[in-house]
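Case study 2.
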Amino acid sequence: MDELTVNKNPTADPQDTASRVEEGLRKKFSKKLFSKFAKAIVEYGLVKEGDKIAVCISGGKDSMLMAKLFQELKRHNKFPFELVFLVMDPGYAPQNRELIESNAKLLNIPVTIFASDIFQNVYHIEKSPCYICARMRRGHLYSKARELGCNKIALGHHYDDVIETILMGMLYGGQMQTMMPLINSANFKGMQLIRPMYLIREKDIKAWRDYYGLQFLQCACKFTQNSAYEPAISKRQKVKELIARLAKEDPGIEQNIFKSAENVNLATIISYKDKSGKIHRYSDDD
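Prediction:
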């Protein structure tokens, strides 16, 4: 990776920062960010004519970059589609919400913010609070997006999230699955979830962030704000570290994990589920 020069004070002139970030997506970071963003949209058919997409912003580096990439895509669009930059406040501390708002202003992202009480509802849940919180957040985003006339929500999951999910399913879930680039919502008819950052590496997102000296929300969860709460190392973090160790020995490991979900040979699979959930098992008559 090219050595990067960090801008230590991007807040001096917000308009200048937004302009430089946008120029960077067209030049310095075009190959590793915008080109891969556009490739995923074309390859997986994520954006169609007439779409109205809720670009969901959590305040972290991934979703903030996704918003800027969508703005750039909109400038070059070959067919009409609409964007809404949607921020849900699930009960952030005031300083965390302020950081999201200031970054949106700094990067010239016109956000629509709505509140929910998710943090309050999951705070006292002991079993799988993160999973329940994530499900509730997604439901609120779908609901608000539909209220605003959107037919899709966009989330900022990237390439590294995908390969980590594949390994997590195998190691901890006993199943072969992946994080799909496009999903039809089961509970919100006619709506879809898309992941246009699907082909972008996390290291390149960090490089973009650091080049402009940007500071985004890390984790605003009330569990981690509680000084008495001592979270164990998450399964995802363990898998992330495992992949990093393997990649040091063989740089092709990460790509092979990703491609394993594309190159499935059903003739060598003992059993698999179809869309209805029906299980098909191996037979020597096949």
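The two ends are 48 Å apart (CA to CA).
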